[in-house]
Amino acid sequence: METLRIDERTRLLVLTGAGVSAESGIATFRGSDGLWENHPIEQVASPEGFREDPALVWHFYSQRRAGAKDCQPNAGHLAISEWERRLGDRFLLATQNVDGLHRQAGNRRVVELHGNLFTTRCARCDRRPFEDRTEYPEGTVPRCDECGGRLRPHIVWFGEMLEPEDLFRVEQFMSEEGRLVFLAVGTSGAVWPAAGFVDEARELGGETWLVNADPAENGGSFHRFVRGKSGDVLPILLEFT
Ligand code: OAD
Fold it and tell me: Residues 12-30: pLDDT tens digits?
């Protein structure tokens, strides 16, 4: 297998998607049926879906919490946390995953682009998002202690904007001095803006790599493609020189 050489000038930007958590037992999104755990994606991952049936949406995320809470980081997550340990501020991880497994594996330089499954915020007032591991009983919609409004999962749904500061952090990292390497892992390359990071990295002269079990939708944009499971490939991918 081809290895990715990291020297002392290299800055490594890693983008992960659902494939990285698959070996920890968390289902990926794009199955062949277009459903997410038997629900049309818009029903459980859009502001319209939440307006229409907030109890259903909370039941869905409560089930996701129950499913994810005992999952453990796998060899792919652990390899990525080791890279951060070695590279320090020459490393940044942007993840589309909401399961928190990268932090559990030890990563601290993480941008959670799509939010976090174990964080809740108020849909009405400006209180800060807070940690919440509650699995709400079916049929309930939790209310804000401060304003009485509906609480909602702190997840970026379809049709919503990512946090501008998260994107800024990624873009700033890309444009710093040195040799930029961009590595995407376990993502179908179908959801923007993350799917466009590879093009931005290339425009800035970066070397771009994809590790994925299957070809990605934006696969043609990468310089290198290593086909395989992240838990097998990542522990042996990097060569520090
Ligand atoms: P997808 O489910 O679209 O894609 C997962 C990719 O991982 C697929 O291309 C698989 O081939 C690959 N894969 C599966 N198992 C793998 C493994 N063990 N090792 C390596 N690759 C593997 O997931 P994402 O691209 O992450 O957004 O989806 C992006 C976003 O769409 C998600 O963050 C979510 C979803 O709607 C929100 O919830 C906002």
Answer: 999 999 999 999 999 888 7
**Residue 132 predicted with pLDDT over 80:** yes
Q: Which residues of 157-171 are buried (b: 16+ CB within 10 A; e: fewer)?
A: beeeebeeebbebbe
Only one residue has tokens 């804000």, namely 144
Asked whether residue 37 carries a pLDDT value surpassing 80, the answer given is: no
Q: Report the pocket of ligand 1 as residue ranges, CB < 6 Å.
A: 17-19, 22-23, 28-30, 45, 96, 114, 156, 186-188, 190-191, 212-214, 216, 229-230
Whether 235 and 183 share a structural domain:
yes
By alpha-carbon position, which residue is closest to atom 23 of ligand 1? 18
**Active-site positions?**
114
Shared domain for 49 and 126, answered yes or no, is yes
pLDDT at position 35 is 67
Give the residue carrying structure tokens 């520090």: 240
Q: Which domain covers residue 170, as residue numbers?
A: 4-26+72-114+162-240
